[in-house]
Amino acid sequence: MAKALDINALFHPRSVALIGVSADFTKLSGRPFRFFREYGYAGKIYPVNPKHSEIGGLPCFANLAAIPGEVDLAVITLPASAVPRTIAECGAKGVKAAAVISSGFAEVGGEGIRLQEELVRAATEHGIAVCGPNCSGFVYVPERVTASFNVGLDGGFPHPGPVAFISQSGALSAYILAEARERGLGFRYWISTGNECVLSFTDYLHHVLEDPQVGLILGYMEDARDGEAFQAEAHRALVLDKPLIIMKVGRSEAGAKASVSHTGSLAGADDVYQAVFSQNGILRAENLDELFDLAMLAKASRRPRGKRVQVLSISGAAGILMADVGSESGLEFPELTPATKEALKKIMPPFAALTNPMDVTAQAVARPSLFRSAAEVVLADPNVDTLVYFLGIVPGAHERLASDIADIVRSTHKLVVVTWFPLPAPEVCDILTRAGVPFFSEPSRGMRALGKMSQYMATRERVLSRQPQPPTPKPAPESEVGKILDHVRIQGRTAMSEVEAKGLLKAWGLAVPRGGLARTSAEAQSLARGIGGPVAMKASSPDLLHKTEAGVVRLGVKNAQEVEKAYAEIVEKASAWNPDARLDGVLVEEMIAGDFREIIVGVRQDQRFGPVVTFGLGGIFVEALRDFAVCPAPLTVEQAREIIQKIRGYRILTAFRSRPAADVEALARVMCQVGDLALIWQDRISELEINPLFVLPEGSGVVVGDALAVLR
Amino acid sequence: MAKALDINALFHPRSVALIGVSADFTKLSGRPFRFFREYGYAGKIYPVNPKHSEIGGLPCFANLAAIPGEVDLAVITLPASAVPRTIAECGAKGVKAAAVISSGFAEVGGEGIRLQEELVRAATEHGIAVCGPNCSGFVYVPERVTASFNVGLDGGFPHPGPVAFISQSGALSAYILAEARERGLGFRYWISTGNECVLSFTDYLHHVLEDPQVGLILGYMEDARDGEAFQAEAHRALVLDKPLIIMKVGRSEAGAKASVSHTGSLAGADDVYQAVFSQNGILRAENLDELFDLAMLAKASRRPRGKRVQVLSISGAAGILMADVGSESGLEFPELTPATKEALKKIMPPFAALTNPMDVTAQAVARPSLFRSAAEVVLADPNVDTLVYFLGIVPGAHERLASDIADIVRSTHKLVVVTWFPLPAPEVCDILTRAGVPFFSEPSRGMRALGKMSQYMATRERVLSRQPQPPTPKPAPESEVGKILDHVRIQGRTAMSEVEAKGLLKAWGLAVPRGGLARTSAEAQSLARGIGGPVAMKASSPDLLHKTEAGVVRLGVKNAQEVEKAYAEIVEKASAWNPDARLDGVLVEEMIAGDFREIIVGVRQDQRFGPVVTFGLGGIFVEALRDFAVCPAPLTVEQAREIIQKIRGYRILTAFRSRPAADVEALARVMCQVGDLALIWQDRISELEINPLFVLPEGSGVVVGDALAVLR
């Protein structure tokens, strides 16, 4: 719906009406008008306020209808109660877009919710692209459209530049705009999204990605309201190499909703965001410093080609600090090739160690040309993807050092990054800026940003090279899975018993143990005979989800007598644990043999991003250590493999202490299958968990040990 | 030795000789002279250089002896080869202190090492306090002693202030001095320690702690050369409440030396530093930003009284960011009391949520007094230890906001911290500075620093309230422990067998399983009968340290036949695994019953800090997850308890999923005992590891499952 609207009218209006404008330009309702005048918007400006006949030297109109010409954009600062009517008037006048700055809508609840619904109805009826309400408006820098009361504009108009900034906060992003001007970071769009009742964060993201002049997107996000569309745009940003740098807050909230499965309660909302960001190469800024640091690297015309960095430092100490932080940020500090070392020996002072980081030593104070010579040699080394400088105070030589770097950058295609503490004079920084060299003052911040940027490039390469996987087709409703789901629904239940959940997974192609449901002790003995060897026995009930705690599980039951005894005990324990539990019978299954690992694989429906697969080591690991990883479905086998390797205890799955490696490939396939199942039956399955999944040694596959499922 | 020297002569010289001074003041050897003159040192200045008769208008002397008056301090910039002789001349002249700026000593190896030894001999013989060599010298701000070529002095003399800065880097710390001047951070001492051949980092630390005008110590450290003395000074700093803020680099180096025990190879050098810092309340700065951030809080006259913070923010977004980072930094954001909320309701705009963080909303732009009223109410709340502001651009109201804060601070004893983004004009910052209010621009940096400062306060409180524990007395050499150690030494071995290691631990008061060493199968059967019930059997050999891998362990051996069979197999496997292994026999022990957890407790001698106790969950946990904690000995039971709670998997030791809680008290006592053992027999025991230690349920104690020990 929203995308069909003419979002262009928002950013390229030929005329603008300021409805509810105040003659007091210090007021929120007077500030947009002042900015439109002060910063030289070239279109027509129509103040609308029945109390005035003239504002700021321009004729003021009593209402929209009174305006003689056409109006493209309305900037509305009226009380909330007047807004829906005004949007309808906009429709009548042919206005195509509106920035509703007024607050008092859904954010205040009650009557505000109703007003917002009315606003949406009017906007939809007339096809008006609405920014807001309850926002700080927007700024489109090239055409000086200042539909905002943004305090960040008080100190001056933004520098033009490649940044599109989309924010779910008004105040903080205004301060960011002000700070960006101080730092010389140029903007094209500045958008405060407000309640997003018509246009969403994702809609703006879609729009700015269409703009070839946009080179990077900065964002402040609290919540992506349309997860799937957001992911699609993030993917497009990655493909276009327009880095999407988002400060996403709200990590500390207890985001996980109450849930019966372990994995459901494990992965909080922020874990899911983190997974979505990481899958789509979104650069997550942890704070305001990092937002600017990442922007500094993202706006550069060059990208790191790999993770291998050589540091040239005027201080040994700074070099060590940079190696520490760089290593933690995923960068590598390889040795230089023998040829490079040979060449450096001819240049460097006799006692300089040709290491990485390399200390150019205090000699550089007397001979600043050392840096230039060393950099040239180092950049020719095939082991070096990126050269990072650390410079400090070199009396009288700052301009020379910066000019040398500018020269060097012209003679290489590799990325060169400068850290310089304290930052030199502005005219020296300008030399670096003109040469397109990203520079930082605090050296570890430069390394951290470079680490994230290198990770971005690696993700981009992986995503671009990924073979598109055809979506798993949805089976017909009369398929086995459909029948099982129907069967549970017909009984008016949402929780599935272990037998049902295993049946579902078996129908979906997963391996489950041989066995069956016994309704009498004799049936159990007969089943055990048929299986041969020791068996596992468990109560089967949709009301006993955590069977071990209930004491209704017996393992390694060996013969007819043991089966009989176990059957009786299980029935007794089940009713002792929960007298109201419906007992379908006792599940009798083969014992899984072999040197398996116990794994949890679960999937739950995230309200923003749909099905999310969780993976962790089973038993106490996942609960006591919270060692797990999540990924939104659908997953490719390759992605599943990456997720598996992310957990801290991954080593437990590898050949370790004379144990054979686990069948990680089969595990990865099951993660994909479970994700597909929850995606295809999204409207039916609420959550599903295999716990444990027995992962056998390499080549031997996996078997579902136990499973639970909850339907919607 | 070094402490007997007159370090005061270094910092309070009445006269200074600049030996090797250059007439070119841009040169390293000319710069100290220039600074002494330029910045107004009040004592006598004697240039010494045979090539000149006059430098900078002062008579220049051919050598020290030619100087007519007394000389307290020599600043030496001669080539390394001339330095030892010059130090001897200093001795002859009665010079009490020297700053040896020259390099070419131990840091270059070979001849340099010899020259440094000569230097030390001369200094020791004449009792000269030497700073350096291979350093950038030092600055004592109050008396304008500028015995340094520090480029940080080029831009101006440091502001006087409470900071003592001690650095193992020359260049970087000069830049820090320059940056500190820009930020208005005042210094008293600035010391570059160099090779520390006479005076060490710890010596300077001792000295500056004696100075009542020093309020905090900043440091850059690569290596504490005298761990025990360093810890003692750090403790003194904590007691005096002079925060010790150290940027310690070198995390990424593979610091752990090769070692036979698991715990030995687990804990790298940096883990030990981290433990020492944490035990002694040393504030570790992760980077240069944090060094300044922590200094900003440390120099304030108030400390956080607890971890409970209320945030008042002009931006909801910034508030969430601050809560995220604050929570991660150990701060708490409690709810306000009902009385406070009631009072706030009368002040705040109707729709403002009275939460923590609290968004004062855009209303504050129109009514900046909102902040003042809200702050007064919040500070009266007993749930609030510290109030943190986030402010942004409030047109026309910055001075008013700052003055309000200054007023509020005068009316409370609680700490008030301000974050303000972007930072307001310098004159507004000055209002905060004058009121002693710490302020930050990036809000999450302010929170992180406050979190560390609150942790510092908690550590300080704990350390001050700790009952001094009398040191465990060293038993006589003829004690059981001494005899066991002697027995191994006499045999020319360093590795102890399990039987010996257990004997050692038993003699030290630890519980070990009942049992004994069988040298024949018959002996094994007899031992097993005596124990009663199933037994554990293992090869006993000093050459088989990892017995499970060697296949020489049998558990739950039930009767005479099984014992016989197990004995034969163990003997066979032992010689198959290592044909040269000396086999003392087979250890036959009771099986430990009960619901125990397997734990690793180890201790090894760290070259800097002496015995370090490592603790981790046994089995795959410690190896695959690297989940462990370390602490230098001696430990109090209270410290051991804290260490135990530090591991990620601590929950496994608590009552968890129907298991009883483990006997953490007994575990803590064993950690103390093991630390004491390694401390008292520091000259004999190199490393010792109990793996597993069986920790029984609460009140039931612990039993040593297996142990290994290596002597020096």
What does this entry look like structurally?
2 copies of one chain form a homodimer. Chain A is flat and about 95 Å long. In chain A, helix 3 (83-93) packs parallel to helix 4. Chain A contains 25 helices and 30 strands. The first copy, chain A, starts with 7 loop residues before the first helix and ends with a strand. Chain A has 4 domains: 2-214, Rossmann fold; 302-465, 3-Layer(aba) Sandwich (Rossmann fold); 480-590, Dna Ligase, domain 1, CATH 3.30.1490; 597-711, 2-Layer Sandwich (D-amino Acid Aminotransferase, Chain A, domain 1), CATH 3.30.470.20. In chain A, the strands form 6 sheets. Chain A has a 7-stranded mixed β-sheet, with helices on both faces. With 712 residues, chain A is an alpha/beta fold. In chain A, a hairpin with a 2-residue loop joins strand 3 (54-55) and strand 4 (58-59). Chains A and B meet through helix 5, helix 11, helix 17 and helix 23 of A and helix 5, helix 11, helix 17 and helix 23 of B.
Q: CATH H-level name of the largest domain in chain A... which superfamily?
A: NAD(P)-binding Rossmann-like Domain
Question: Which percent range describes the beta-strand content of chain A?
Answer: 15-25%
Sketch the major β-sheet of chain A: 7 strands, mixed
Radius of gyration of chain A, in Å, reads: 32 Å
Number of domains of chain A: 4
Globular, elongated, flat, extended or rod-shaped: what is the shape of chain A? flat
CATH architecture descriptor name of the largest domain in chain A: 3-Layer(aba) Sandwich
Tell me the greatest interface.
A-B, 72 and 72 residues
The third-level CATH topology of the largest domain in chain A is Rossmann fold
Strand order of the largest sheet of chain A: 9-8-11-10-12-13-14
By DSSP (H or I, 4+ residues per run), the number of helices of chain A equals 25
Alpha-carbon distance between the two ends of chain A: 27 Å
**CATH hierarchy, class of the largest domain in chain A:** Alpha Beta
